[in-house]
Structures are given as structure tokens and as C-alpha cells.
Amino acid sequence: MKAVVTATPNKSQATRSRVTLRRVFGAAAIGASLLFAGQAAAQQVFAAASMKDALDDLSAAYTKETGKKPVLVYGASSTLARQIEKGAPADVFISADQDWMDYAQKHDLIDTASRRNLLGNELVLIAPATTSDKVDLKPGVDLDGKLGGGKLAMGDPAHVPAGLYGKAALEKLGVWSKVQGKVAAADNVRNALLLVARGEAPYGIVYKTDANAEKRVRIAGTFPADSHAPIVYPVAVTKQADRAAADPFYKFITTPAALATFERYGFTRP
User: Fold this and answer.
1) Binding residue per annotation — 162?
2) Is 203 annotated as a binding-site member?
3) What is the spatial distance between Cα 121 and Cα 71, in angstroms, rounded to a whole number?
């Protein structure tokens, strides 16, 4: 799938395109964002889905300050990295883990000198806000029993960073083998969040910032920091970037004021 809209499709094609975009990116208004792709005046920012609320806020502040409105494309870091590899017009890439930024670097997609660790996060177990039980996430926790016949919503553990962190944490706690058959694998962490928010899954694994952003869920437990690799969000300018457009926004989101905004949404310093 190309991330650039180069022609006006007919009604049938447009419908198929919208369905495809929802499946690939799983973020609200993603199709509308992509309609701006190719406009030279806009910064094309590809960012992990978990950053949406904070980055939307910062983008609005940047627009107010500069008069320029970045195009924000959210999705799983794996999907975004592969889209950049296929030629999607990204100027800035923010991944939810080091592995997919490593992938971008290995494939010569980013300016290595611009790569830096931007943010950190925590991994939590969520449940619908209408429930009240707490889960002590210690080795041997009976998560399978708590699920009953329900599903455990999480990012796809095959490639979505939140899912990879989640699988690692459950393996460390010794319970992955018991719950893997009940996993509802989402194409990004925000879709896993929605499954729990809508009551379609009794529990889910997301980042703390995602839980903070959704009133219909609550944090039932926090995974020990040593149960998974540190959650780090690296950022870099891409090799194909329009540096006149990319550099100002890149610098803006790395300022102390921007980092304070990220922290207000629950992100941590890496």
C-alpha cells in the first residue's frame, strides 16, 4: 500500500482504500492525514500510535507558533518502518521501540546522526473501568484464570512493540504459555486499548499513556520494569526528508517544553 494519494479514486476504490488504511494503521482519522501526503509545505511525521494524544497536542502548539501544520501518521512502528522503506513520504520517524528504529537504520532510511532517545513509558494491564479488581503481576500470576473464557487484548506479539514487550513480560512471569491461546492480537496498541474500552476483552496490555488517555479503562496492574526491555521511543529524521520542513519540528519536539508536555501525558524521560 502506498502512503501517497496520487489520484482521485472512484467510489469503489475509495471504499477499499479506507478499509485498508483502517486495518494497517488502526488510528482515528488516519485516512484524512494521508490525504495531505505529498504536500511539500507539510512535515510528514510517522509516529507510534501510542503517541497520538500528546503529539496531537504538540502539533497544535507548533502550528500556532509557526503557522505550519504537520501531517501526523500514526500506526504500529513496524508498519510505519516498512511503509518508509517502501517510499512513504516520512520526514520524521518516532518508533515505540529500538528494534524498529534499528530496522530503519539498517536499511539506510534515517539520518543516523539525528537519532536520539526521546521518551520512555511503562507497561500496564488494563481492565474495563466498570470493574475493580487488582492484579498482582508477579511470577506465576493466574492471569489465565482471571481471563476465564475471555481474551487478552494486546498488540500483535509478532511485530507490534507493545505486543513484543507484553509477550516478554508474560514469559518472564512464567504465564505466556497459559494465555497465548487467548490473545486477541491487535495491529497496534490503540486497537488493543479499544477492545477493552468497548468491553470486548476483560483485560489488555498497553502502555500507561494509553490507559491514561481512555476513560473507559483502568489500570489493573503494572508490569515490573525488569520483566521486559526498557520501553524507549527513539526519534530520527529520515534520509529522504525535506530538511527545511523536518528539522524545525524535530527540534521542537525535543525541547524541554515539549518534553514537559509528553510527561504530562504520562511519558517518562528515557
Assistant:
1) yes
2) no
3) 24
How far is it, in rounded angstroms, from Cα 211 to Cα 196?
10
The verdict on whether residue 77 carries a ligand-binding annotation is yes
Q: State the Cα–Cα distance between residues 121 and 159, nearest whole angstrom.
A: 18
161-196: pLDDT as tens digits: 999 999 999 999 999 999 999 999 999 999 999 999
Q: What pTM does this model have?
A: 0.83
Q: Is 246 annotated as a binding residue?
A: no
| pLDDT tens-place string over residues 187-234 | 999 999 999 999 999 999 999 999 999 999 999 999 999 999 999 999
The hierarchical CATH code for the domain 123-222 is 3.40.190.10
Please list, in sequence order, all residues whose beta carbon lies within 8 angstroms of the beta carbon of residue 109, skipping any fewer than 6 positions away.
81, 84, 85, 93, 238, 239, 240
Q: CATH classification of 44-120+232-265 is 3.40.50.2000, yes or no? A: no
